[in-house]
Amino acid sequence: MESDVTCSKCGSTYAYQDGAMWICPECGHEWSQQDQTAEGSAEGAAEIRDANGNVLADGDTVTVIKDLKVKGSSLVVKGGTKVKGIRLTDGGDGHDIACKIPGIGAMNLKSEFVKKA
């Protein structure tokens, strides 16, 4: 295990190499050595990817891939719901997409529960 390799998502020093990929056991983030060197040179230019690994950008249209309960409410965002005009945010709690969902309103989503439409 190399001590100079840290996870770019959570900063864990417990990342380990599995073949050509690096894996963080704390948050589950996976990246290649090429990604690590590119991130080091980009300095903070983090990409937000959907569940399929596609890079998301402001204004994209995404589709929710599973039913999501709305915290503090009895509402549910159904899988297959299209969300237009997303904004990428730096949510500290993992919610990195700000959007307005038809019939529900403004809310934040995690990118792992959407796919690019």
Task: Write structural notes for this entry.
The structure is a single chain. The chain has 117 residues and is mostly beta strands. 9% of the residues lie in helices and 28% in strands. It is built from one helix and eleven strands; from the N terminus they run E-E-E-H-E-E-E-E-E-E-E-E. The protein has a three-stranded antiparallel sheet. A three-stranded antiparallel sheet has the order 7-4-11, with no helix packed on it. Strands 8-9-10 form a three-stranded antiparallel sheet, with no helix packed on it. Strand 9 and strand 10 form a beta hairpin. The longest helix is centred in the N-terminal third of the chain and has 10 residues, at 33-42. The mean pLDDT is 84. It comes from Acetobacter farinalis.
- Tertiary shape: elongated
Specify the number of helices. Answer: 1
**Structural class by sheet pairing and helices:** mainly beta
* Spatial separation of the terminal alpha carbons: 39 Å
Strand order of the largest sheet: 1-2-3
Low-confidence stretches: none
Strand content: 25-35%
- Summed over residues and divided by their number, the pLDDT gives a mean of 84
List SSEs in N-to-C order: EEEHEEEEEEEE
